[in-house]
């Protein structure tokens, strides 16, 4: 298929087909280990999101000059919700920045909107007036929070002290090696390593342990990210893939935070680069079985992943061959390898329609061929084992998906193995040599069932009775992990709001589960101090909404006086499952009740749950969240004067929407990298991924969608009224939610609001959607946010012993 390898301009990676869009939260994946996700409270085990985890991976400074202000500053308690206007302790806090107004008229369907802050948009990020305004906002934020600087440092050290800095993740056996990652004390980034495994190719057994003492095989360092990061203000490794013969390492690297990846190949024995650098790629790479060909993805000028390329080592990138070009501007593509490693799969689709193409990885010089039907409204995913492909198919009628099987030699001869169930969502299907691993979701909870398969070569017409894995807690989160296909061992990750991240190896034959790694929590952490509950709120239309709650039993009274922190997401069919996070302990150990609202638009309760929170039903997401907040207050899980709410990315839209809908309900609102100018963004096809997201939000070129989106878009619903304390964040190089969205929102909110509560913008001038790249730098962001929350909720003492 002819296509030109041109316009490999700055691209956006880290996006799988259905979930990782530019307004989606972060996923940090190191295959073969379970890493704590420090940038989000969201885990992505659903089928749509787990496509990234299904990859057969083997493993997984100073930003700006701070202005100087005279004196030190603090805030005292008072104004609406009990927070007074800022006053000075030793000096005067500068007045909040006032962005200049330049009238800009936006007209659609005869409706005129005036955007006085449209000028803040600068696609090149070089306009001196824009940069000066952002710096002014940052300076104001720094000045207002100066009194909490020592407390922020204390919080940072407190969070950091709970993390075992010198730690090794659970080694994963792959053929003749154990592959693993580790962190070193005082170092920000990951080190990728391996050791030779006894017994050659394995596959090993469930109780097998990698020896590290005397007589153990020597550790090989494959990639030390700390060394690479020294030369860059921002550094992030996307995927790390070892070649089938275990001699080469392919790495994707982002050096700016804009999710533009370069690909390099390293000779493991010598540590030297092999061949030529590939630039302008997405994060996704896959090896052919010949150890000489790499497959990767590029994007078009609006950052839509649209071409798959074949690259031969030692060739120039200009000589690469385009295997597939997706010309439908509403489709985007995803690349991965089957667990069996026999096929390369290319997915092309939207949120409603998806089809699959394939190529034998043992015959990598061939062409991509259709594997699944391409039918509008039908969504296919596939895995492979032996003589069969296993498909999940979803349609409007089969909304929670069904499982099909077809012979490799007759891919259209489908047989149904698991029929559609309206109350059970089929999320993900993976294969091993002798088993199918099936992930489902029922009543908001995940489950894994193992099905034994007949010997390879035999026909598959039905499944035997499945073996369901049991979990110890009533609410929890599961995470897909890499595992060895030619083995009877399956690996999964487990955690809950109070149980740290754990990695288990599961014997598919015997049903024995062995804990391989429990992330240590230092500082005297005692799981028995914490209580988790899962009540259900009732939405305005009568729908029951689950809420996951955790608190410290010895600190919380549950009498309506406790501070409450409520988080939510509710978009892209991504489930916001209850998982453990180190940084959250700094809230819980100060008597804060932490809750997650599992609102419509997410994927917690199946496909219908998602569909009832998108397009012309999107406002259900926001009213559900408000109903959850009201339920928690009415049932005395928190104080009406001490309730903070938080959302990130599309969750930032949630935070902005509930802020404008019910500003009286909240004390503090945190809107991180917030997608708040919905209408303007979705009317502009030149903005990355706008066209592919019309199926999520709607296309406002259609009048019905225009006025519906206008009714909730936060930027269009700011009024002259009192608002709570607000912290809004953004990243200058964020390609998913452009920095100008949170910036314009703050400028207009500051113009219109009638209260004296805090309104701060924190724009990271050296990072993108996922904040800073170093693990400790991210902790500093959490410390800042939590200091703002505790300050505005009246928990943080000021420098002169006043309550803040």
Automatic annotation (TrEMBL):
Molecular function terms, GO-annotated: serine-type endopeptidase activity
Entry keywords, A to Z: Hydrolase, Protease, Serine protease
Domain of life, per lineage: Eukaryota
Residue ranges of domain Peptidase S9A N-terminal in the record: 96-516
Name recorded for this polypeptide: Prolyl endopeptidase
Span of domain Peptidase S9 prolyl oligopeptidase catalytic: 579-794
GO biological process, one term: proteolysis
Family note: Belongs to the peptidase S9A family.
EC number assigned by the record: 3.4.21.-
Catalyzed reactions per annotation: Hydrolysis of Pro-|-Xaa >> Ala-|-Xaa in oligopeptides
Enzyme class: hydrolase
């Amino acid at each position: 298929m002819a296509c030109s390898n041109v316009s490999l301009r700055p691209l956006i990676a880290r996006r799988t087909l259905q979930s990782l869009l530019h307004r989606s939260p972060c996923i940090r994946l190191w295959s073969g280990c379970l890493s704590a996700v420090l940038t989000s409270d969201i885990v992505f085990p659903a089928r749509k999101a787990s496509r990234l985890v299904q990859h057969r991976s083997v493993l997984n400074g100073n930003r700006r000059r701070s202005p100087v202000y005279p004196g030190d500053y603090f805030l005292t308690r008072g104004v609406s919700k009990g927070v007074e206007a800022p006053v000075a302790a030793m000096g005067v806090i500068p007045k909040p920045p006032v962005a200049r107004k330049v009238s800009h008229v936006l007209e659609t369907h005869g409706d005129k909107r005036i955007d006085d802050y449209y000028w803040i948009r600068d696609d090149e990020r070089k306009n001196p007036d824009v940069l000066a305004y952002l710096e002014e906002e940052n300076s104001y934020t720094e000045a207002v929070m100066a009194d909490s600087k020592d407390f922020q440092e204390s919080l940072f050290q407190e969070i950091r002290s709970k993390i075992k800095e010198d730690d090794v993740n659970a080694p994963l056996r792959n053929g003749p090696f154990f592959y693993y990652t580790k962190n070193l004390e005082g170092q920000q980034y990951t080190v990728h390593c391996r050791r030779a495994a006894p017994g050659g190719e394995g596959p090993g057994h469930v109780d097998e342990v990698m020896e590290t003492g005397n007589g153990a095989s020597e550790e090989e360092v494959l990639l030390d990210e700390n060394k690479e990061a020294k030369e860059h203000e921002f550094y992030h490794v996307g995927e790390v893939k070892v070649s089938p013969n275990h001699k080469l390492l392919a790495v994707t690297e982002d050096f700016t935070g804009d999710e533009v990846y370069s690909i390099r190949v390293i000779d493991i024995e010598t540590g030297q680069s092999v061949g030529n650098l590939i630039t302008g790629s997405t994060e996704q790479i896959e090896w052919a079985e010949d150890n000489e060909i790499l497959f990767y993805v590029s994007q078009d000028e609006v950052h839509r992943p649209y071409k798959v390329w074949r690259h031969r080592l030692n060739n120039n990138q200009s000589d690469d061959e385009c295997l597939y070009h997706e010309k439908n501007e509403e489709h985007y593509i995803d690349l991965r390898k089957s667990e069996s490693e026999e096929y390369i799969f290319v997915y092309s689709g939207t949120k409603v329609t998806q089809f699959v193409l394939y190529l034998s990885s043992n015959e990598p010089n061939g062409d991509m061929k259709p594997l699944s039907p391409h039918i509008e409204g039908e969504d296919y995913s596939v895995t492979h084992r032996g003589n069969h492909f296993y498909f999940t198919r979803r349609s409007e009628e089969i909304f929670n998906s069904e499982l099909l099987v077809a012979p490799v030699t007759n891919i259209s001869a489908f047989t149904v193995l698991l029929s559609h169930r309206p109350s059970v969502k089929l999320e993900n299907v993976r294969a091993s040599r002798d088993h199918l691993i099936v992930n489902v979701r029922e009543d908001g909870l995940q489950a894994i069932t193992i099905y034994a398969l007949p010997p390879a070569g035999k026909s598959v017409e039905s499944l035997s009775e499945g073996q369901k894995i049991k979990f110890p807690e009533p609410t929890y989160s599961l995470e897909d992990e890499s595992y060895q296909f030619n083995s009877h061992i399956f690996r999964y990750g487990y955690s809950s709001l109070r149980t740290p991240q754990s990695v288990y190896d599961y014997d598919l034959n015997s049903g024995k589960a062995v804990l391989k790694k429990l992330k240590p929590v230092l500082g005297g952490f005692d799981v028995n101090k914490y209580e988790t509950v899962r009540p259900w709120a009732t939405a305005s239309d009568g729908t029951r909404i689950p809420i996951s709650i955790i608190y410290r039993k010895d600190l919380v009274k549950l009498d309506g006086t406790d501070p409450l922190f409520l988080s939510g997401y509710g978009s892209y069919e991504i489930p916001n499952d209850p998982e453990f996070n180190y940084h959250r302990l700094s809230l819980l150990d100060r008597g804060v009740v932490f809750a997650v609202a599992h609102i419509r638009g997410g994927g917690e309760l199946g496909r219908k749950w998602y569909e009832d929170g998108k397009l012309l039903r999107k406002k259900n997401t926001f009213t559900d969240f408000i109903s959850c907040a009201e339920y928690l207050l009415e049932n005395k899980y928190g104080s009406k004067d001490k309730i903070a709410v938080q959302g990130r990315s599309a969750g930032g839209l949630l935070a902005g929407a509930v802020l404008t809908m019910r500003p009286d309900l909240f004390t503090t609102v945190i809107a991180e990298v917030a997608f708040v100018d919905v209408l303007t963004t979705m009317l502009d096809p030149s903005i990355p991924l706008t066209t592919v997201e019309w199926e999520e939000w709607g296309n406002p070129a259609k009048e019905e969608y225009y006025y519906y989106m206008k009714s909730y878009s936060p930027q269009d619903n700011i009024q002259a009224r009192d608002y709570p304390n607000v912290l809004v964040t953004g990243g200058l190089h964020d390609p998913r939610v452009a920095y100008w969205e949170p910036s314009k929102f703050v400028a207009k909110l500051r113009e219109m609001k009638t209260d004296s509560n805090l309104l701060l913008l924190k724009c990271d001038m050296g990072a993108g959607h996922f904040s800073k790249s170093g693990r400790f730098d991210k902790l500093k962001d959490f410390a800042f946010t939590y200091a703002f929350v505790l300050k505005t909720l009246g928990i943080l003492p000021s420098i002169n012993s006043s309550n803040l």
